[in-house]
Every structure is written in structure tokens, then in C-alpha cells.
Amino acid sequence: MDRSYLIKPQIGGKLPEISFGRGVYLYGADGRDYLDGSSGAITCSIGHGIKEVAEAMHTQAKKISFVYRSQFTSAAAEALAAKIAEWLPGDLNHSFFVNSGSEAAETAMKMAIQYWQEKGEPSKTIVLSRWRSYHGITMGALSLSGFPERRERFQYHMSGVPDIAPPYCARCPFGKVYPECGLMCAEDLERSIKRRGRQNIAAFIAEPIVGAAGACLVPPAGYYEKIREICTANEILFIADEVMTGMGRTGNVLGIQHWDCQPDLAVLGKGLGAGYAPIAAVVATDRVMEAFLQGSRSIMSGHTYSANPQSAAASLAVLQYIENNHLILNAEQQGDRLKTMITELDEPFIGDVRGKGLLIGIELVQDRASMKPFLKKQAAGARLIELAFKNGLLLYPASAGVEGGDGDAVIAAPPLTINDRELAEF
Ligand code: PLP
Q1: What band does 261 get if pLDDT is binned at 50, 70 and 90?
Q2: CATH code of the domain in which 239 resides
Q3: Are residues 296 and 207 in the same domain?
Q4: Are 126 and 161 in contact (CB under 8 A)?
Q5: Is there an atom of ligand 1 within 6 Å of 45 CB?
Q6: Which residues span the domain enclosing 376?
Q7: Are 104 and 98 in contact (CB under 8 A)?
Q8: Which NCBIfam families match (predicted)?
Q9: pLDDT tens digit sequence for 281-298
Q10: pTM of the model
């Protein structure tokens, strides 16, 4: 048998090999090149082969790559935590570092539960989430994910509670139209809290703009303001899962900043390391941190590689690069252009084009007039992705459409560095 490493599409097949990357392009060992229209998995937000990041990593590796988080801190981890606090809105000032988005979402879940224990309210243990959401692949993060295809096999190990309707205006779960709907999708949170009892609920977690599970669902104006109001009134924490939307991707530092809503915990991943190193974080407000300081003074979580200086140095150089090159502004401007270009394609199979900045979802339908969805088994998204791939463009798969997780879509999310010429080529 072939001695390959195990990765889904590779079982029984071989992936093409990449030799190197430069900016928005990837160059294959077979001489083919690709425009990275998905930043890998919406990750490589500053593009490939950035010299400044490579140099920062080289310098750090020569000093020290690893210290154990409970024995030592490092200048790199301290500087990164300070930079994140400077970037993030309000008093989201306290970073807890982990290595992947799943770990970060799961850590946020645990921190929310522990927060209420520290406050003397141990019955508050349920973490609510929405249908049509994705928070990660480890058991806790998966349990928060309202993504039937991914959770089905493991349903007997699920502790999170996806119970809230998604803010999906193109196919409103209540059959309403905004603004006459009165934001019933946000009020759905209140219904769930009432049914389960606020004394049992620790937090509500949501992706500000739904990624893979909904192909960039942008809730309407007022949605997160209402969510914040409901969370505050019922004394439950609001966790913004910014793994896909964070660190500039949508034209703001955080996706939630498109609304007037301050989360209690923010979850960062993907673009934080931008593909240069595995790093993710949970960022807490002063108020949340205060409960830990007044209580047990420890967070009951952590991984061997948490806050390792090597990843921290890479991430710090990534954020510096974004700042120096004004890439958040570029994401906003080029995102608007790309969205317009895709909309103007005027193809009957493009049912909806949505998203913010350089996070653009394209819902594929059999016929735009009726919005009749392609079912997953028809593999319209997979075929579009394959066709684009053959033509040297990378796109990312997503779900959309009818309830139950079926329906098809793709995501366009090139690096935030993309310029006019590359955009035209895209
Ligand atoms: N949260 C969101 C919103 C994501 O999009 C993802 C990954 O796609 C995750 C969490 C999990 O991140 P990771 O794949 O790094 O574990």
C-alpha cells in the first residue's frame, strides 16, 4: 500500500504537489500555477512567501522556539498579546493562545463555563449556538457546530446546543422579509433561553458572518445589537467566533465590528498566523478576566504548544505586515470590487452573492428566478471548484440552501494583498 499521509481527498488518490508560493500565486511541482482565490482555507491572508515573516521566524528560531507556557513567557508572546489588544475593539485585552481554530472555540466554551463557576453560578453550563454554523472539528467545538453532515456520526458525544435559527435572509427560516420580519432570527435566541432557563446557560457563540456552513451569511442591520441586548439581559456571555472573519478579512479587524456589538470573548485563528505558523487565541474582556483574577486565578485549559515563541513571532510579523501595507483597507476596497464583478457575471446558476470584504459567498442554484437549490449530491460546487482548479483558480467549498445542511455554494477569499491586475485575472 502507498505510504501517504492521511488526508481526506488523498485516500485512494494523490494531490498535486506545490513547490513554492509568491504573493497570491502557488507554483506546482508539475509546472502549473494557481491563483490562490481561497487563501488556502481562508487562511493565507497576506499571501505566500512574505520575506518579513520568514525573517522574523528565522530570527526567533535562532533565539528560542519553545518555552513551556507555565514555566516562562517570551518577548514574542507578550508583544503579540499587546498587539492583539491594540487591534481589537473595546476592552478585549487578554489573549489565551492555542494552536487551531477548533482549540480556540473549544477553549472559549470552557472559559465561559468556568467564568460562571468563578462567579458562583455553577449551574450555567449550556453553550448555545446556531444552526448553519461551524466552530471546529474537535468534539467540543464540533458539538457547537450546527452543521449536520459533520456532526451526525458523533451525535452521542455532543455537549454544545445548536438551537437558534440562522440569520439567512436569502432563505429566511421564518419565511419573512427584512425589515418587516422584526429580526425573528435574533429573537429566536430569547426563545431558546426561556425554554432552557437562563440560570442554565453560560454563553451564546456565533460566527459574525457565517463561513463554510452558510457561504458568508451577513445578518441584517440591528441583528447583533439585538443579540447583545438579549445576552446582557439574560446574563449570558456572547462569544464571537472570528476564526474565519477576524484579523482584517472582512474589511474590519473583526467581523463583528460591522455591527455595534461588543463580544465578551473573541475567538481568533486562521488569519492570525496567516498560514505561517499554527496559532489561534481566545481574547477576553477586562470584565471576564476580572472574574478569573478574583476567583481561581487560572484557566483550566491549555496545550503544550500554547503561546510558543515561534508561532507568536510569525503572527506578530503577519500583523505588522497587514498594518504596514494597509491591507484591511485593501480588503474592503477589493472585496467590493470582486463582489460587483461576480454579481455582474449575471449567470442563472448564481443565486446569491454575499459577504463582506474579501470573504464572498456564491450560492449556486439550478435557477435564479426560483432559487431552486442544487443538492449536494449534484455536486455543483465541487464541479465549479474542479473547473476553476483546472483553469488555475482556487475556490473554497461551502454549504447553503435548503434546511438540513444541503444546498451548494463556494467561497471566494483571496489574500488581502490582491491588486487590480490579479483581481481582473481572478
Ligand atoms: N471556527 C470557524 C468559524 C471556522 O471557520 C473554523 C475552520 O474553518 C474553525 C472554527 C476551526 O478552525 P481549525 O480548522 O483551525 O481548527
Answers
A1: very high
A2: 3.40.640.10
A3: yes
A4: yes
A5: no
A6: 8-50+325-425
A7: yes
A8: PRK06917.1 (NF005375)
A9: 999 999 999 999 999 999
A10: 0.97
SS3 69: coil
Contacts of 208 (CB under 8 A, 6+ apart): 219, 224, 240, 241, 242, 245, 250, 254, 255, 256, 258, 259
> How sure is the predictor about 137, in pLDDT bands with cuts at 50, 70 and 90?
very high
Q: Any idea what the CATH number is for the domain that residue 38 is in?
A: 3.90.1150.10
**Nearest-atom index, ligand 1, CA of 245:** 3
10-35: pLDDT as tens digits: 566 778 999 999 999 999 999 999 99
Contact yes or no for 228/190 (Cβ under 8 A): no
Residue 91: CB atoms within 10 Å: 14
Instruction: Report DSSP letters for 15-55, one per residue.
Output: PPPEEEEEBTEEEETTS-EEE-TTHHHHT-TT-B--HHHHH
* Sequence-ordered list of residues with C-beta below 8 angstroms from that of 196, at least 6 positions apart, any chain: 126, 128, 161
Q: What are 356's three cell numbers?
A: 463582506
Whether residue 244 has its Cβ less than 6 Å from ligand 1 = yes
Which amino acid residue places its CA nearest to atom 13 of ligand 1?
Answer: 101
- Pair 331, 201 in one domain: no
Domain identity same for 72 and 175: yes
Q: Which of the listed residues 109, 145, 270, 315 should we mutate to test ligand 1's pocket, taking the one with most ligand atoms within 8 A of CB?
A: 270
**SS3 for 51-62, per residue?**
HHHHHHHHHHHH
For residue 337, what is the enclosing H or E element? helix 327-343
Is the pLDDT at 105 greater than 90, yes or no? Answer: yes
Assess whether 140 and 190 both reside in one domain. Answer: yes
140 pocket-lining for ligand 1 (C-beta < 6 Å): no
CA angle 321, 339, 348 (to 5 degrees): 150
Which of 98, 102, 139 for a ligand 1 pocket mutation test, highest count of atoms within 8 Å of Cβ? 102
Peptide linkage before 179 cis (omega within 30 of 0): yes
Can you tell me the distance from the alpha carbon of 298 to that of 1, in angstroms, rounded to the nearest whole number? Answer: 48
> Measured in angstroms, how far is the CA atom of residue 161 from the centroid of ligand 1?
18
Whether residue 65 sits in one domain with residue 23: no
- Cα(134) to centroid(ligand 1), Å: 7
- Ligand 1 centroid, distance to 62 Cα (angstroms): 31
- Mean of pLDDT values over 329-354: 96
Q: How many domains does the chain divide into?
A: 2
